[in-house]
Amino acid sequence: MTSKSANKGRLTDRKRAAIMEAAVSELKQNGFDNTSMDRIAEVASVSKRTVYNHFPSKEDLFAAIVDELMSRCQLIEVSDYTPGEPIATQLSDIGQTAVDLMASPEFQDLARVTLSRFLQSPDLAREMMIDSTQFEAGLIVWLETAHQEGNLQIPDAQLAAKQFLGLIQSFAFWPPLIGKEAPLTEVQKKQLVESTVSMFLAQYSG
């Protein structure tokens, strides 16, 4: 690729990112039905033609936002179970990764826009959302391995994974998402991870 082509590609990527950012901002403030592609173009400081070159319709733009949300869920991974390393330490690392994702402002904005539309259209939610994330799947494998090693007593790893993540979501994700509470501070994140791991181990320690 020539330098000129590379620069053009980077400019295109920046414009696409600006459109996505503007769309999330407008959808968060005004909702799907009250947000226009014209307004998104204005906020993104690009032409309407540029918006439609990237996203032929508002539905396509929303689909890209959902893809971005799910991509962020899929990109984080659970490290393999490490024999000999304290269970609490490994679970704390997993919990911290989950908290950092769920509490991040960017993730919260994507989730707020997505869930707002899905609440109005459950059929669309079933069509576009995946059943589970790579992170949850990795946690299930980790829990199954810990069970097989005899360090945890977990008859249903899928249920246990949902319980673990549910404890974190209840404080790091849902309250800030609906505006009930301010986002967690770094100290509060650490406290949440510690209490979640403590409660989880109290239930499932061998």
UniProtKB/TrEMBL annotation:
Q: Which GO terms describe its molecular function?
A: DNA-binding transcription factor activity; transcription cis-regulatory region binding
The HTH tetR-type domain covers 13-73
Q: Which domain of life is it from?
A: Bacteria
Under Pfam families, the record lists: TetR_C_7 (PF14246), TetR_N (PF00440)
Q: Which UniProt keywords apply?
A: DNA-binding, Transcription, Transcription regulation
Q: Which residues fall under the DNA-binding region feature?
A: 36-55
Q: Which PANTHER family match?
A: HTH-TYPE TRANSCRIPTIONAL REGULATOR RUTR, TRANSCRIPTIONAL REGULATOR TETR FAMILY
**Name the UniProt record assigns to this protein:** HTH-type transcriptional regulator RutR
The record lists the lineage as: Bacteria, Pseudomonadati, Planctomycetota, Planctomycetia, Planctomycetales
